[in-house]
């Protein structure tokens, strides 16, 4: 095995303590992270920011080299920064067959390595990704449109957290059973029956990661690392609009694999031209046995229905819902919710869309507020939050692509617009496409068809209901039918909170209660919060839990009799 | 919660030590069982055998009552003993919609109970099933055709072992995450952000167990108990030819559920007339979210393709393969293999079918034996094993149904019959349909179409190959393409054994090596051997492992801020 060569680094020994801490953290579920989220010099070093930006700039308008990667040709540049410039980067071009064949050809020694070795390699990849957080932050900012600090945190350390979390689950699950055991069954007559048994975790086959435009690393790392650590080669298929963050990731993974003595083709990049539709071809390749996907409900459903040879893990779209019943901190509620709607222009799979509130109003520390008054108060809170253009740009980021912009335009015709979306000028990037959130007032009965669709982007609806009970019924029905990644409730009544918890259990969605401070419904913390539930249509997987990893490998067994008498005889001979 | 009522038994407290031992056993994988396999009076008591037989006899030609079970009408008797008499038992008749609705209606408190409570109830069910082992043994014998001792062991204690194993995995997996945790994230300024979080395992929904004719309890209990302990109601849909063993099981489960304060409809029986095709209707019901199935490849594949709303766990058919390379105990090899082919007339999903041997022969302690000589020697070993009719009947059992008998007839026309199947007269049951195994000689190239189909029943092929390398290539190819539940190799060469282990890992099948004594390839021991691998087409699940249980529930989360300042203020007021 490669890891035993004396000249090769022992990455498992280097990261063993970290891996053990990570496994313990999945069980404790307190705050835990080894990757600091602050992009400060005191943490990442004096030159990290400068070097990371330079590394990003060096890639622009050039070819992204991946040493030893298959594919002679190049994929023409597909990426444009939402801040207003083309990245101009070309990537190696591989056919679907080439990518799958190269992954398969590389998989033997990777499968033969044990889970410790694979987890060690994965932890080293994550360590180097962490060191490259500034480079990745720029790549994420200029492909997703996230503001820089968010791109650093969500695209860097938080994504690395989610990756390590998947490593921890994958490593622990493979070690649930011993590598070897002796079975000894007493017999009524004579000595026991004795067998020696071996147990070997074996990966399912070639894995494909189909990544998204908005969170290429955060949503991509869990599947990538879960597949890798369970012994599978991984073909990374980035969104044509967000290749660079994953190309950097693949480059680093291949470097570490090579140093550890493995074929770097255990991790491959399958960039495509827009319109290539290579994701569908990869998904149907008979040797592709695992697929991780983040993106549209339409393509996710297609994958689940058609990629029958593969274990398919999807995160799709849903109707994130907030139930407003009462509060003793109305100002905190408004501020918290305004920030949730504004963060990255609502282009998060976790951003609230449907705000359910009794038409006649809710009780607050500032008196009863009707649905109309609440809609106006929320709009005012948004105006206040986004009043300063520089600060607004830092919260909103930029609109990731034309699809979101067009949807925002269509939303202006829906219900009664309470707060219109407006452009914001970026202080440094005049061509950046930045828009503030739109808030529309809908009715629970009349506008059902509108709010039971997902409006991905900065679009939210204040929906008037008969009562909180009615709101909870809508939450149950719409989330059960259409899915959701988040739900939230505001109430001062323990009874209502209990009812909301029950409704969320019925609908299969995670619930946040009374968030009025520095925690937001659209944020989830690795090692503590589950992201997605696999219990409603928005996702077939949870990042991360044992179910996310157990289908990626099988534990195969061999057994052989132990014959003590024969052994004795042979010793006598 | 029901379990807290003072008058109700605390089944979890009663069985906690057993559950903890069971979880430890899944990790140790040594021999372990709490359910003695010997049907002796010293173990099960003086009257157990007599009472069990009487309980079975009392059911014949009557209606099987299930107190409080939905369904006014009755399913006419469908069961005939392979030993030559009709059971004449009618069962409650429920429609698919009634069964699913009753399960769903019963599920609330069962979901609300915690994993400890559910595991305690399951362990009590298993304890009572164990006490009913003799009754179940007669029910299994006279529906499957298994000889009595096998019906007792495989249908009773060994099935209970597999049930408890599933309970252990299901219980442990739900406890991987705490019920509650406090998350505290330090902030650069001010106090930490603090949230209290709750984590609740929630079952996926109504589960359906579609059981088989040959091992209704052994193959049925893992899915039944895995679904139950993860919080799901279970509709048990027995094979029309083997209802009674599962009807007794359902009766006992309902008794325990009722005593524990739950709605007995958490477990339901959905007996059907032959030709009702209710399995397909149940499988497509939108509220059915979990399906466990043992049976034909055709229906298993149909379930996997069509029951898209459900998590589907199948055990189907395959090409169980033995690679013969060399041996230092030829006599032991022949005796062991002859018993494997004869046990329950080869009507086990684990019975070897394809015996691959170099045409020119293998090295043995009795000289080189060619493929033809081996076929003759194996036939002679079968003749010897089955020479005495009473002993033969005790090993062979009876032919379960006409399908197996007809297949056996067809096999007489295949290749060159080396040993013909013959009837055996049962000393006590003159009408029993008993047949000895057929052995046919095939060629690896010429007869590929024949041996790449499954011939379920007492049909095996001695297949001449070019070499052991060729045999291993055939194992890789045929098992990868068509699946297998078992594989075996005989060799005195460590190199060949290594090659065979690698071939088995490639093909995704568990491997037995050099079995010449009292362990047989078609037997697998709960808590030590995995049954099925989910890594080849014969099965999508392993009995049991974490992957078998993690898809049956989701862990849902709620979170709420903790405001220490507010709490202090309220304490001061």
Briefly summarize what is shown.
The first copy, chain A, has 573 residues and is α/β, with parallel strands linked by helices. Chain A has 21 helices and 21 strands. Chain A is globular and about 85 Å long.
What would your notes on this structure say?
The structure is a homodimer of 573-residue chains. With 573 residues, chain A is α/β, with parallel strands linked by helices. The first copy, chain A, is 42% helix and 17% strand. In chain A, the strands form six sheets. In chain A, strands 16-17-18-13-12-19-20 form a seven-stranded mixed beta sheet, with helices on both faces. In chain A, helix 6 crosses helix 7. The longest helix of chain A is centred in the N-terminal third of the chain and has 18 residues, at 11-28. The first copy, chain A, is globular and about 85 Å long. The first copy, chain A, starts with 10 loop residues before the first helix and ends with a helix. Mean pLDDT of chain A is 95; it is low at 566-573. At the A-B interface, helix 1, strand 5, strand 6, helix 19 and strand 20 of A face helix 1, strand 5, strand 6, helix 19 and strand 20 of B.
């Amino acid at each position: 095995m490669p890891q035993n060569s004396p000249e090769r680094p022992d990455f498992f020994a280097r990261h063993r303590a970290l891996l053990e801490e990570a496994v313990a953290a999945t069980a404790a579920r307190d705050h835990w992270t080894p990757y600091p989220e602050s992009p400060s010099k005191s943490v990442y070093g004096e030159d990290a920011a400068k070097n990371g930006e330079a590394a990003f700039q060096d890639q622009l308008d050039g070819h992204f080299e991946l040493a030893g990667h298959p594919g002679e040709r190049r994929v023409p540049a597909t990426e444009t920064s939402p801040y207003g410039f083309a990245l101009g980067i070309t990537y190696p071009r591989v056919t679907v067959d080439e990518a799958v064949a190269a992954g398969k050809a590389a998989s033997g020694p990777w499968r033969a390595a044990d889970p410790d070795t694979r987890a060690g390699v994965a932890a080293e990849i994550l360590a180097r990704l962490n060191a490259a957080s500034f480079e990745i932050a720029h790549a994420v900012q200029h492909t997703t449109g996230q503001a820089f600090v968010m791109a650093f945190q969500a695209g860097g350390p938080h994504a690395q957290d989610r990756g390590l979390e998947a490593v921890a689950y994958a490593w622990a699950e493979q070690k649930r059973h011993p590598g070897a055991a002796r079975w000894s069954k007493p017999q009524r007559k004579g000595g026991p029956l004795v067998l020696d048994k071996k147990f070997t975790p074996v990966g399912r086959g070639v894995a494909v990661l189909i990544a998204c435009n908005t969170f290429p690393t955060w949503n991509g790392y869990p599947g990538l690392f879960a597949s890798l650590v369970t012994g599978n080669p991984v073909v990374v298929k980035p969104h044509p609009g967000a290749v660079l963050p994953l190309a950097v990731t693949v480059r680093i993974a291949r470097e570490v694999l090579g140093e550890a003595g493995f074929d770097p083709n255990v991790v491959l990049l399958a960039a495509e031209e827009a319109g290539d539709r290579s994701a569908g071809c990869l998904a149907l390749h008979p040797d592709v046995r695992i697929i991780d996907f983040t993106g549209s409900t339409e393509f996710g459903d297609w994958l689940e229905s058609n990629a029958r040879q593969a274990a398919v893990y999807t995160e799709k779209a849903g109707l994130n819902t907030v139930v407003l019943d009462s509060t003793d901190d109305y100002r905190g509620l408004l501020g918290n919710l305004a920030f949730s709607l504004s963060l990255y222009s609502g282009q998060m799979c976790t951003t609230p869309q449907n705000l359910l509130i009794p038409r006649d109003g809710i009780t607050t520390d500032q008196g009863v507020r009707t649905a109309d008054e609440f809609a106006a108060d929320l709009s005012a809170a948004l105006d206040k939050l986004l009043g300063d253009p520089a600060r607004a740009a830092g919260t909103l980021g930029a609109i990731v692509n034309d699809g979101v912009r067009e949807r925002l335009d269509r939303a202006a015709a829906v219900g009664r617009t309470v707060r219109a979306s407006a452009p914001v000028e970026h202080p440094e990037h005049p061509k950046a496409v930045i828009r503030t959130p739109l808030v529309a007032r809908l009715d629970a009965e009349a506008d059902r068809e509108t709010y039971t669709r997902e409006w991905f982007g900065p679009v939210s609806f204040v929906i008037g209901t008969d009562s909180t009970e009615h709101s909870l019924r809508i939450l149950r029905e719409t989330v059960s039918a259409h899915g959701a990644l988040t739900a939230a409730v505001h109430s001062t009544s323990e009874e209502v909170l209990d009812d909301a918890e029950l409704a969320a259990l019925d609908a299969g969605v995670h619930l946040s209660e009374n968030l009025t401070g520095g925690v937001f419904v659209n944020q989830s913390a690795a090692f503590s919060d589950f992201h997605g539930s696999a219990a409603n249509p928005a996702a077939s997987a949870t990042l991360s839990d044992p179910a996310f990893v157990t289908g990626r490998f099988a534990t195969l067994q061999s057994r052989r009799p132990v014959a003590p008498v024969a052994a004795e005889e042979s010793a006598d001979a």
